[in-house]
Description:
46% helix
Amino acid sequence: KTDKESFCAAFNEWYEKYRDVVNERVHDKRIKRITPPYMRPKLRSAYLSIKRNMPLLWTFYDHPETGLPNTNNALEAVFSDLKTKVRVHRGIGRENRKKLIDEYLKALLERPTQIDYCSVITQNVHSALLIYNPSPKMSNLPIFIKKLMINEPPKVTETGLYSVKEAAKLLGVSCSKLYNAVKRGARCGGIDGRVRRDNGRLQFTGKEILRYWRG
Protein backbone atom coordinates (compact mmCIF):
# COMPACT_ATOMS: atom_id res chain seq x y z
CA LYS A 1 0.00 0.00 0.00
CA THR A 2 1.64 3.23 -1.19
CA ASP A 3 1.69 6.24 1.11
CA LYS A 4 1.75 9.90 0.09
CA GLU A 5 5.49 10.41 0.42
CA SER A 6 6.37 7.32 -1.62
CA PHE A 7 3.89 8.14 -4.37
CA CYS A 8 5.01 11.79 -4.71
CA ALA A 9 8.65 10.78 -4.76
CA ALA A 10 8.04 8.10 -7.40
CA PHE A 11 5.92 10.53 -9.43
CA ASN A 12 8.63 13.20 -9.43
CA GLU A 13 11.30 10.62 -10.21
CA TRP A 14 9.27 9.37 -13.19
CA TYR A 15 8.94 12.91 -14.55
CA GLU A 16 12.66 13.61 -14.19
CA LYS A 17 13.41 10.39 -16.06
CA TYR A 18 10.93 11.02 -18.90
CA ARG A 19 10.93 14.84 -18.94
CA ASP A 20 12.16 14.99 -22.53
CA VAL A 21 9.55 12.45 -23.66
CA VAL A 22 6.69 14.33 -22.00
CA ASN A 23 7.77 17.73 -23.35
CA GLU A 24 8.84 16.58 -26.83
CA ARG A 25 7.23 18.49 -29.68
CA VAL A 26 6.40 17.38 -33.21
CA HIS A 27 9.31 17.73 -35.65
CA ASP A 28 7.68 18.56 -38.95
CA LYS A 29 8.80 21.38 -41.22
CA ARG A 30 5.34 21.52 -42.78
CA ILE A 31 3.93 22.88 -39.51
CA LYS A 32 4.10 26.67 -39.71
CA ARG A 33 3.19 27.34 -36.07
CA ILE A 34 5.80 29.14 -33.99
CA THR A 35 5.44 26.54 -31.24
CA PRO A 36 4.72 23.06 -32.70
CA PRO A 37 2.23 20.80 -30.86
CA TYR A 38 3.42 18.25 -28.34
CA MET A 39 4.28 14.80 -29.62
CA ARG A 40 2.29 13.06 -26.87
CA PRO A 41 -0.46 15.47 -25.76
CA LYS A 42 -2.49 12.84 -23.87
CA LEU A 43 0.50 11.74 -21.82
CA ARG A 44 1.38 15.34 -21.00
CA SER A 45 -2.24 16.13 -20.13
CA ALA A 46 -2.41 13.13 -17.77
CA TYR A 47 0.81 14.19 -16.06
CA LEU A 48 -0.34 17.80 -15.58
CA SER A 49 -3.75 16.69 -14.31
CA ILE A 50 -2.17 14.56 -11.57
CA LYS A 51 0.30 17.32 -10.71
CA ARG A 52 -2.42 20.00 -10.38
CA ASN A 53 -4.73 17.82 -8.29
CA MET A 54 -2.04 16.23 -6.13
CA PRO A 55 -2.93 18.24 -2.97
CA LEU A 56 -6.59 17.18 -3.22
CA LEU A 57 -5.84 13.53 -3.94
CA TRP A 58 -4.38 13.07 -0.46
CA THR A 59 -7.04 14.80 1.64
CA PHE A 60 -7.95 11.47 3.28
CA TYR A 61 -4.26 10.91 4.08
CA ASP A 62 -3.57 14.38 5.51
CA HIS A 63 -6.68 14.29 7.74
CA PRO A 64 -7.07 10.71 9.02
CA GLU A 65 -9.28 11.88 11.90
CA THR A 66 -12.14 12.47 9.45
CA GLY A 67 -12.34 8.80 8.47
CA LEU A 68 -12.58 9.67 4.77
CA PRO A 69 -12.34 6.79 2.27
CA ASN A 70 -9.44 6.87 -0.19
CA THR A 71 -11.77 6.73 -3.21
CA ASN A 72 -15.06 8.36 -4.24
CA ASN A 73 -16.55 5.08 -5.45
CA ALA A 74 -19.39 5.31 -2.91
CA LEU A 75 -20.47 8.73 -4.20
CA GLU A 76 -20.16 7.64 -7.85
CA ALA A 77 -22.44 4.70 -7.11
CA VAL A 78 -25.03 7.02 -5.55
CA PHE A 79 -25.04 9.39 -8.52
CA SER A 80 -25.15 6.53 -11.01
CA ASP A 81 -28.20 5.04 -9.30
CA LEU A 82 -29.84 8.48 -9.11
CA LYS A 83 -29.28 9.15 -12.83
CA THR A 84 -30.78 5.78 -13.70
CA LYS A 85 -33.93 6.50 -11.68
CA VAL A 86 -34.34 9.97 -13.21
CA ARG A 87 -33.77 8.62 -16.72
CA VAL A 88 -36.63 6.14 -16.31
CA HIS A 89 -39.14 8.97 -15.85
CA ARG A 90 -38.53 10.77 -19.14
CA GLY A 91 -41.94 12.39 -19.37
CA ILE A 92 -42.01 14.27 -16.06
CA GLY A 93 -41.43 18.02 -15.88
CA ARG A 94 -38.74 20.00 -14.12
CA GLU A 95 -40.56 20.41 -10.80
CA ASN A 96 -41.44 16.72 -10.55
CA ARG A 97 -37.87 15.78 -11.38
CA LYS A 98 -36.68 18.06 -8.62
CA LYS A 99 -39.08 16.40 -6.17
CA LEU A 100 -37.87 12.97 -7.27
CA ILE A 101 -34.22 13.91 -6.67
CA ASP A 102 -35.00 15.61 -3.36
CA GLU A 103 -36.91 12.60 -2.02
CA TYR A 104 -34.22 10.18 -3.19
CA LEU A 105 -31.43 12.13 -1.49
CA LYS A 106 -33.51 12.72 1.63
CA ALA A 107 -34.15 9.00 1.99
CA LEU A 108 -30.48 8.28 1.30
CA LEU A 109 -29.19 10.64 3.99
CA GLU A 110 -31.65 9.24 6.56
CA ARG A 111 -30.20 5.75 6.30
CA PRO A 112 -28.31 4.85 9.48
CA THR A 113 -25.51 3.21 7.49
CA GLN A 114 -24.97 6.24 5.27
CA ILE A 115 -21.77 8.25 5.82
CA ASP A 116 -22.57 11.51 7.60
CA TYR A 117 -19.91 13.78 6.10
CA CYS A 118 -21.60 14.14 2.71
CA SER A 119 -24.61 16.40 2.28
CA VAL A 120 -26.21 16.77 -1.12
CA ILE A 121 -28.40 19.75 -2.07
CA THR A 122 -30.39 19.86 -5.30
CA GLN A 123 -31.85 23.03 -6.80
CA ASN A 124 -33.46 21.52 -9.93
CA VAL A 125 -32.85 18.73 -12.39
CA HIS A 126 -30.10 20.70 -14.13
CA SER A 127 -28.40 21.92 -10.93
CA ALA A 128 -26.97 19.45 -8.42
CA LEU A 129 -24.62 20.83 -5.81
CA LEU A 130 -22.41 18.41 -3.95
CA ILE A 131 -20.96 20.03 -0.85
CA TYR A 132 -18.21 17.97 0.70
CA ASN A 133 -17.82 19.01 4.34
CA PRO A 134 -16.27 16.20 6.41
CA SER A 135 -16.46 17.83 9.82
CA PRO A 136 -17.23 21.23 11.39
CA LYS A 137 -13.76 21.10 12.94
CA MET A 138 -12.17 20.84 9.50
CA SER A 139 -13.47 24.14 8.15
CA ASN A 140 -10.19 24.69 6.31
CA LEU A 141 -10.82 21.73 4.01
CA PRO A 142 -11.79 22.56 0.42
CA ILE A 143 -15.46 22.58 -0.58
CA PHE A 144 -16.10 20.87 -3.89
CA ILE A 145 -19.14 22.06 -5.81
CA LYS A 146 -20.42 20.40 -8.93
CA LYS A 147 -22.88 22.54 -10.91
CA LEU A 148 -24.54 21.18 -14.04
CA MET A 149 -26.43 24.28 -15.17
CA ILE A 150 -27.32 27.75 -13.91
CA ASN A 151 -30.17 28.08 -11.41
CA GLU A 152 -31.68 31.30 -12.73
CA PRO A 153 -33.28 31.69 -16.19
CA PRO A 154 -30.83 32.94 -18.84
CA LYS A 155 -31.08 36.68 -19.38
CA VAL A 156 -32.12 36.74 -23.03
CA THR A 157 -34.75 38.34 -25.22
CA GLU A 158 -36.99 35.84 -26.97
CA THR A 159 -36.50 37.46 -30.37
CA GLY A 160 -32.73 37.84 -29.96
CA LEU A 161 -30.13 35.68 -31.73
CA TYR A 162 -27.13 34.22 -29.92
CA SER A 163 -24.02 32.40 -31.08
CA VAL A 164 -22.95 29.00 -29.73
CA LYS A 165 -20.43 30.59 -27.38
CA GLU A 166 -22.94 33.14 -26.12
CA ALA A 167 -25.67 30.51 -25.62
CA ALA A 168 -23.30 28.18 -23.78
CA LYS A 169 -22.26 31.01 -21.45
CA LEU A 170 -25.87 31.98 -20.80
CA LEU A 171 -26.83 28.40 -19.99
CA GLY A 172 -23.70 27.73 -17.95
CA VAL A 173 -22.62 24.72 -20.03
CA SER A 174 -19.71 23.95 -22.32
CA CYS A 175 -19.88 24.44 -26.08
CA SER A 176 -19.37 20.70 -26.63
CA LYS A 177 -22.39 19.90 -24.46
CA LEU A 178 -24.44 22.42 -26.41
CA TYR A 179 -23.39 20.84 -29.73
CA ASN A 180 -24.46 17.44 -28.39
CA ALA A 181 -27.84 18.95 -27.48
CA VAL A 182 -28.15 20.26 -31.04
CA LYS A 183 -27.51 16.76 -32.41
CA ARG A 184 -30.36 15.39 -30.27
CA GLY A 185 -32.75 18.13 -31.31
CA ALA A 186 -35.67 19.60 -29.37
CA ARG A 187 -37.83 16.50 -29.84
CA CYS A 188 -35.28 14.36 -28.00
CA GLY A 189 -34.58 16.75 -25.14
CA GLY A 190 -31.99 18.84 -26.96
CA ILE A 191 -32.08 22.25 -28.58
CA ASP A 192 -32.79 23.47 -32.10
CA GLY A 193 -30.51 26.00 -33.76
CA ARG A 194 -30.45 27.82 -37.07
CA VAL A 195 -27.64 28.42 -39.52
CA ARG A 196 -26.72 31.96 -40.53
CA ARG A 197 -26.76 32.53 -44.28
CA ASP A 198 -23.81 34.91 -44.36
CA ASN A 199 -21.21 32.72 -42.60
CA GLY A 200 -22.90 29.33 -42.06
CA ARG A 201 -22.46 29.49 -38.30
CA LEU A 202 -24.96 28.12 -35.80
CA GLN A 203 -27.08 30.46 -33.70
CA PHE A 204 -30.03 30.20 -31.32
CA THR A 205 -33.05 32.33 -30.57
CA GLY A 206 -33.62 33.54 -27.03
CA LYS A 207 -36.94 31.72 -27.00
CA GLU A 208 -35.26 28.41 -27.82
CA ILE A 209 -32.59 28.95 -25.17
CA LEU A 210 -35.28 29.52 -22.54
CA ARG A 211 -37.20 26.44 -23.70
CA TYR A 212 -34.09 24.28 -23.43
CA TRP A 213 -33.31 25.64 -19.98
CA ARG A 214 -36.84 24.91 -18.74
CA GLY A 215 -36.79 21.40 -20.23
